[in-house]
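User: Fold this; C-alpha cells only.

Assistant: Input:
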Amino acid sequence: MMLSLSLVLLVMWTLGGAQENIFWEVQRYDGWYNNLLHHSHGSVGASLLRLLPANYADGVYQALQEPRVPNARQLSVAVAQGPSGLPSHRNTTVLGVFFGFHVLSEILEAEKPGCPAEFLNIRIPTGDPVFDPESTGDVILPFQRIQWALETGQSPNKPREQTNEVTSWLDGSSIYGPSHSWSDALRSFSGGKLASGPDKRFPRETNGRVPMWKALDPSTGKGGPQGIYDLGSAWGNENPFLQAENIVWFRYHNHWATALAQAHPTWTDEDLFQHARKRVIATFQSIVLYEWLPALLEIAVPEYKGYQQHLDPSLSPEFMAAASLFLATMVPPGIYRRNPTCQFRADPYPALRLCNSYWSRESTRLQHAEDMDDLLLGMSSQIAEQEDNIVVEDLQDYWYGPLKYTRTDYVASWLQRGRDIGLPTYNQAREQFGLKPLQTWTDLAPHLGEQVLERVAALYANNTARLELLPGGMLEANGSLFSAIILDQFVRLRDGDRFWFENTKNGLFTEGETREIRNTTFHDVLVAVTYANSAEIQREVFVWHEGDPCPQPQQLTTQHLANCTPMTVLDYFEGSGAGFGIIIVVLCCLPLVTLFVAWIVAVFRKRDFKKLQKKRDPSVRREVTSEVAHAMEWHGPKIDSSPVCIQLQPDKVLKVLDSRWSVLRSISLKTQQRVEMILSNNKGNRALLLKSPKEYDLVLLFSEEAERSNFIGKLRDYLKKSCLDLHVSEMKEQSLLKQAVTQEQRKKILETFFRHLFAQVLDIDQSDAGELSFESSQKAKESLTCELSRAEFAESLGLKAHSMFVESMFSLADKDGNGYISFREFLDILVIFMKGSPEEKSKVMFRMYDIDENGFLSKEEFLRMLRSFIEISNNCLSRDQAEQVTESMFQASGFQDRDELTWEDFHYMLRDHDSELRLTHLCIKGVPDVFKKNIQNRVSFIKKDETISDREESPNVETVAQYMEQEGQELRKRLGRKVNRYQLHVYTEARRKKYQKNKVQQKIQEFKRFIENYRRHIVCVVLFSAITAGLFVERAYYYAFASPLTGIAQTTFVGIIISRGSAACISFMYSYILLTMCRNLITILRETFLNRYIPFDAAVDFHRWIAMAALIFSVLHTAGHVVNVYIFSVIPLSVLSCLFSSVFMDDGSQLPQKYYWWFFQTIPGMTGVLLLVILAVMYVFATHHFRRVSFQGFWITHHLYVLLYVLIIIHGSYALIQQPRFHIYFIIPALIYGADKLLSLSRKKVEIGVVKAELLPSGVTHLQFQRPQDFDYKSGQWVRIACVALGTTEYHPFTLTSAPHEDTLSLHIRAVGPWTTRLRELYSPESLAVIGKLPKLYLDGPFGEGHQEWNKFEVSVLVGGGIGVTPFASILKDLVFKSSFSSKLLCKKIYFIWVTRTQRQFEWLADIIREVEEADRNDLVSVHIYVTQLAEKFDLRTTMLYICERHFQKVLNRSLFTGLRSITHFGRPPFVPFFTSLQEVHPEVQKIGVFSCGPPGMTKSVEKACQQVNKKDQTYFVHHYENF
C-alpha cells in the first residue's frame, strides 16, 4: 500500500514539474471539451452536421441509385470532361490548392469505409474508352460507403449520419494527430521536437505504431510502409505534394522547438513541445482563415467578434463534398519543381505527373530535403487550373482506385459519395444559403457550350429540380454555392472554437503575440523551413502576381508529361490456387494417411502377435533334405510374381515352396515319359516354362541367365536319374508367357468342367448351363478333356489332399489308375450321389473303404471309415470313442460276434436312415451358383407340397418352406413334451390364414412390429436429431438474418450458415456423447423406471451413432470454413476489418491475408487442423477392423478425447466470429462424466487378488478372483479389467461367467489378440513359476447390458456364438440356482443355442452345461449345440456322422461329441423354423426374449429371423444382442 502511494506521489510530482511552465489550458488532441456546454462538438468520431434534411431514397439510409439519378460515370464525363491547361482566373497557385487539401485533412477524415461493408458500385457504360475499351459491358468499379454513426439510420426521424474520424477544429491534428497516443508516437521526447528520420528534415518512416493509410501505388502495385512517413494525418502521404505540405509543418514545429530551447534552456521537453505546439497551431489558424481562404474564394472573411459557445462548428456533409470537388477542378496534371535561382527541373519531363504519384513508394527524385524544397518552390510558382467544371484526366480517369481496381474516376466517386451521404439537391442548397434557385438550364452555366448543358439536362430528364448539389455546383459560372458553403464552414469553425488564437479569454496569447501571429504568413513559414530566402519566394504564396519571382515556364497540359499508367485489376488469389488446392487435398487425405498409419500399426501388431503365437506354440521346423533353386514364379499378366523355391524330390515330384518353406504345390512326374520345357531367348534369357499337361504350368523367372542354366543342369541330372526325357525348346519371352496355362486359366477351365458336369447330372436349362455345343467352343473341348488331380479333387470337396476320405474317394473314382479323374469318371460317381438309391450309395461307401477289395468290411476298415468322417470335425473324437461307437453299432445290429461285414450287413446296419441316405450328396465347392437352387430343390428333407408356396413369407427365406414339416416336427418334439399332433394341426391351419395376407399387410405388420420393438430407440434418436436440427437451424438463421451488423452473412452466406450451424451441432454432440460413456450412471439408471423410456442397453450403439453424426457435421464445418477461407482470401482488407475488427485494421493496403494465414497462423485455424488430425486418428482406430487388430491402438487413440475437448475449447475461445458457446453445452455432461469417471477410478485403485488361474483348451484362460466388498451384480453383466503386470494400464471388457450367488468372480478369456495372449502367458505355469504368485488385477464395474433382462420374460432364447457364450454361462448357473429353492421366477423356460465350430473350443462350457443338466430338476433349460465346422447337412460325410451321433444318443443317452444329454446338430441353426416352432409350443406367451452374443454375422442372422417371424400376429420376439 505504501509503495503504491509513493508511486502515485512520484508521478504527480513529475507531471507537476514537467508542466510548471505551462500556465494555460492545454487543448486536448481528440477535440473533446473544446465546448464546455456541448463536450463532443468537433471531437473525433462526432457526426457530421447536416445543413439540410438527408436526401435518401427511403428517407433513412438507402442511397439514390439509377434510374432515379444518372449513372455516376456518365454524369462525370458530361460535367467534368474537357481540355486541361487553362490557368486560374485568380492566379491561384498550386501551392494554395494542395494547401487546401492539407486543410481538409486537418479538419476532415470521412473516407474510412463503414461497417458492415455496403457498396454503391459504379457501373461503367459499355465502350468507355478508359475503363471498358474492349466494350465488354461488365466493368463495375467498386465503391464502398463510408462510416456512419451506428445509432443513426434506423428510422426517418434519425436518418443515417456520417462521422468524422478527426477533430473538426483547426487544432493541428494533421500535424500532431487526433489522439494523445498518436501524438506521443510522433514525438521524439527530446527537446520538444517531433521524431525525425535519418535526415532531420524528414519525419520518421512509419513502423506500425501510427495507423497511417498505406494504399497501393496504382502505377507499380507496390505497398507496405516504405516511403510512408509518420504524420498527424493518416492520409498525409497520398501524394508527394500533400506530403510536402505536411512536412512543412513538421519542420515548422521543430523550428519553433529549437528556438524555444535556445531561449529557455531550463524548460523540459514537455514545456518546449506544448509551447511550440501552441504557436504552430495559432499560426496555422491564422494562415488558413486570413491568408489562404480569402485567396481561394476572393471573398473577405468576416471580422472575428469573439467566441460563440452556442454555435455548432461541426462539419457538414455539404462542405465535405463541395470543398473536395471545388479544389479538384484546380488541380493540374503535373507539378513543377524549381530551385531558389528559378531553374525548373526537367528529368526527363518538365513536371511530376500527378496520376503516377499517388502513394508513390519509390520516388527517387524526392529523396533529399532539397528535392522537397524544390517541389514546394515549384508549387508556389505554378498557376493552378481554372476554377471551372473541368477536372484533369489524372483525377477523372486515373485517380487511384479502390479495392481490386487500381484506377477509378475521382468525380464519379464524389458524385456517388454525395448520394451515399444523402446530399440535398442543388436548388435546396441554394435556397439554404439565400441564393436564387435554378429555373432554366441556361441560367446554370451561360458560359458553357450548349452541348454540355444538353447532356446534363438529358441525364436529369430536363428537370432542374432533380439536379444534384455537386454537378450543379461544378457547373456554376461563379462558384457562388461552393464558395458560400466553404466560407460558412470556416467561419463557424473559427467562431465556435474556444481555443482560437484570437480569443482573449482563453489565456493562450498576449495581445502582442496575437498581432505577431496575424502578421505571420505562409511565406514566412516556407522561408523558415526551406533553403530559399525571402526574396526567392513571393510574399503571397497562394497567388502569383505579375512581377513575382520565378514565373512558370508555361501552363502545363498532359501533352508535356509522361503517360498515366493504365488501370489493372488485382487478383487477390493470384498464385494461391495450387497451394489452396494442396491444402484441401491434404485435409481430405488425412483419413487416408491415418488409414496408412493404422495399416502399418496393424501389420506390426500382427507380426508381433504371430511371434507371440510361435513363442507360445512353436511349430516344427521343416527340414529341407534336397537341394533347392530360388526364382520368382510368374502367375499371370496382372498378378505380382512371388519368390519361390523349387525342390526336386526323389519320388519324381517337384515341390514348389514359398519363402517360409510351406508347400505351395507338388508336380508329379510319375505319369510323364517326357518333360516339356520352354526357354526364353530374349530379355536377358531369364524365363523358363515347365509344362504340366494335366495341371497349370510352372513359369519361373530367374535373376540372371546363369541361375537358369544352373537349374536346368540340376533338372537334367534329376530327370536322368528318374529315367525321364527332357525336351527343351526356345521362343521369345512374350510368346512363352502367352503360351503358359496359368492358375487363373486353370480355374476357368475347371469352372467350365463343373458347369457341364452338373448340366449332365441335373435337368439344367441350356441358358443356365451355358453353350453345350462343344464343336463351336474350343475352350469347352479343352475343359471336357481335362482331368482333375488329387489336389484339385480335394479342393473341390473342401478337404485336404491327404485326408483319408479323399484318398478313398479318389481311389474309387480313378478307374484307370493314372492319378487323375476324368470328366466321365467324375460323372459316374456324381450320378450315384445325386440320383442313386440308398442301396447304391451305401454300396459306393462300402467299396470305398474295402481296402483289400475282398468283398468284406472288417472292423478296422469300418473304424477307418468312421475316422475319415471325423477328420472334418477337427478330430473331435479320440480313437477309443470311435472304437466304442463301432462296437455299439455292431452290437445294435446283432453283429457283435462278427469281425467283418458283407455289403448286405453294412446296408442292414443303416436301415433306419434310408431317408438321410436318399438325400445324401457330395458337397462340391466348384458347383456354380446358378445350380445351387436346383440342387437344393432336389436335396432336402422336405417333400414337395402344393401348399408350401402359400405358406412362404418371403422367397428370400428358403428355410421356412424347406423345414416347415419334417424338421419342424422334429424340433417341436424336442422343445415341448405336452404338445400333441392335434394341437399342432389346429395351429398350422391358423398360421396358414395369417400367411395369406398380401404384401402391403405384411409390410404394415412388419412396420408395426419394428415400432413396437424399437419405440424407445426411435424416440431418443428423433428427439436427439430434432435438438441437433433445431440448433443448426437456429444458428444458421441467426447468422443469415438476425446477427449483429458485421456484414459477414452478406460476405459468405453459405459458408457462414454451414460452419456456424454445424458448429452448434458439433458442440452439442461432442458434449452429450460423454453421457453414453457414463457406464456407472447407465448401470444405475437402467434399474429405474427410466429404462422403460430410454434404451440404456443401446448406449454403445448410440455412442457410435452420435460419433458418426458428429463426424458428418465436422466435415460440414470444415467445408464451410474452407469456403470462408477462400472468400476471406479474395475480399479486401476494408471488408475484413469490418468482419474481424479485433484482428484486422483497415490501413488502405487492401490486400487480404493469404489462405495459409487462416489455416496455420490463427488459433482457430491451427486448432481446427489439429482437431481434424485427432478426429481422423480416433475414428480410423475406432473402426471394427483396427479395434480388433490393435485394441491398444484404439485404447490410446481414444484417450485423445481429452486433447480433443481442450482443442475445441481453444478453437472457440479466440472469438473470431462469435463469443465462445461450447461451454453452454459442455459443462453439464462434463460434470456428470467426471463424477462417473471418478467413481470408476476409485474402484480401479483397488487391486483384486486372483484366487485361481487355469489354462483351458482352445486358448481359453479361466480366472477366478476375489469378489470385492459390496460388489453386487446380476447375471449377464460385464466388467473391465486391467493387469499392470503386462506393462500397460489399458482396460478390456469381459462378461462375468460366475453367478451372483457365488463367493468369487470368474472370467473365461479367449486368447484372440495380443493382450489376451500375453495374459494367458502371464498365468501359464511357466510364468507363475518364475513370478512365484498370481498377478493381481484391477477391476472396474459391474456394468449392465440387455442380457441381464433374461428373467423378465416367461420364455427366453439364449444364442451364443464362439466366446460369446460367456454371459449365458452366468445366466444358466443363476437360473438353476434360483430354481433349486423354488424362488419366484417369471422365466419358466430357457432355450440355449450354442453355436461353435467345434466343441473342443469350449470344453469349459460343456462342463457348465453338464452341471446345469444335473441340477435342472424342473426341465427349465433346453440346450441345443450346433457344430459348424462340418460340410452341408446332407453331405455324405455329415450324413454318416449324423447317423453315428443319433445311434450314440439312442444307446447311451448322450452326445457322441460333447458327452452331454443336449442334442448336437451339424451345421448352422435354422432360426426361422426354430422361432416358428416356439410360437406353436408357447402360444399363450405374448413376448419371447431373444438374447444373442457372438460374431456380427450370427447376431445379424438372429435379428433377421426375429424380424421375419414378427411379421405374423403371433408371439413377438424381442431381440437383445451384443457383438464382440
